[in-house]
Records
---
Amino acid sequence: MRRPHEILVRPVISERTVELMEDNKYTFIVAKKANKSEIKKAVEEIFDVTVTRVNTLMVRGKNRRMGRFEGKTPDRKKAIVTLKPGDKIEVFEGL
């Protein structure tokens, strides 16, 4: 089994995710091979909260150009984690 810090890559901070925080939902970029139960255990272990639901989605990379050269941004997996009412993740507070 992977360590929790290998599963959670980074939090996602955007206008939409800040609005979701009001509903006690937090968004993370996670490892591509992580499943919902691993994500749940990682969030509970790192932040000491109770997770009630995990939704995951694959975000496909976009095609990009730099002059005549073409490339693609990498694909990534995103997880939206719903916490028990009353629980908060302190990293996101004050946004």
Note: Strands lie at 8-11, 25-30, 51-59, 63-66, 69-72, 76-83.
---
Amino acid sequence: MTKLGTPGPDQGVSGVPAVPPPPAPPTAGRRPEAVARIGLYGLLAANAAAVAVFFVRAGFGVNALLLLGRLTGLYAALLMAFQLLLVARLPWLDRRIGMDRLTLWHRWTGFGLLWTLLGHAVFITFGYAEMSSMDPVDQLVDLAGTVEGVLRAVVALALILVVGAVSARRARRRLAYETWHFVHLYTYVAVVLAFTHQVAAGSTFTASPAATAYWYGLWGAALAAVFAGRLVLPLWRNRRHRLRVTAVVPENDQVVSVHITGRDLDRLPARAGQFFLWRFLTKDRWWQANPFSLSAAPDGRTLRLTVKAAGDGSAALRHLEPGTRVFAEGPYGAFTALRRTRPDVLLIAGGVGVTPIRALLEELHGHAVVLYRVNTEADAVLHDELRELAHAKGAELHLVTGPSVPDRLAPGELSRLVPDLTDRDVYVCGPPGMTAAVLRGLRELGVPRRQIHHERFSLAG
């Protein structure tokens, strides 16, 4: 283990322009993440209450099973709209909560949606079967053939079941992201079918002009959020900035840095610690999007990502030609200085997880300690830059090397290296196993949860 870095004046680092430090973090008031969470919870609770009010006003002139069917159907419609909001990639939410957490919430909301839709189908079918004395299967066939919109609802439920099956953890691990994503797109077909079913057959939807206006407004807002965040904003930003590769620099046999420039990059709202979904517009890779974080703080002129070859897509980046057009979605992520709560920071990186940590060190103010965990010194990507940056900013840099056992970032080692870590914000980025172990150690050492920041850079759960 090596300790590097000595106090020095704040200055630019070799090859990387100096970035003016952002304002000091607030020491009082609600954190941005908490504000966003409260806002989302409040929005969901307010709409749940509105749905209940419209349900009650529609009356109870049916049997109990049909009442339950109507209620579960209404809340399924609400959850479906809320799911769209969670994956709309709206900048205000993403910068405060992070795509990883929004995606996780979307996943669990999806399972809630699946069960409410199944409940709706079962209660409605058995409720009508009780009234008609028909077999439930025959009753469902009869409803699909005679009631407008029911067949569309059956197809929507089937699509949701398929998407739910491929989203299960075991199935998700076996599928390539592109395959999973293609299947997941059918959710939008299910949304349209479900909404048209609600318009055609929903008694609560037509119970009053206010109810009709509410449901049109809810669905319109959800679909508009997706349209704006997933389509309009990325297209507008890429037309505005016209990104291109300027250089490809090998860092070692497995890691490469890609330098990108474009127009008006000073107007791109990117922060150190964030990532983009990058599409390099070559003949064989234009269709593939990969989440790579920035490995240098944005300076208004260039962007840089540093990638380890972990598959065909990332390995192919070594062969990119300067001038290659780039389509980038983002910036995404809440792994930024916006989450600061304390004057000083501890940055913990593992392997290629050093990329957002290196960018954060460049931007953050206050005293910083950096722990960089690798197997051998040869694996320490961007180590020279970190050393120069630590010297320029008066930070401490500890290069922690050696095999995974014993754990060199165990609680005892952490408290020895950084005795005042409970008084610091802690940013952690590395392999999942290392990150989970470090987070457990930090909690064991009594670091308040609000001071611990981590983010998983991936597209899906």
Note: The longest helix spans residues 99-132.
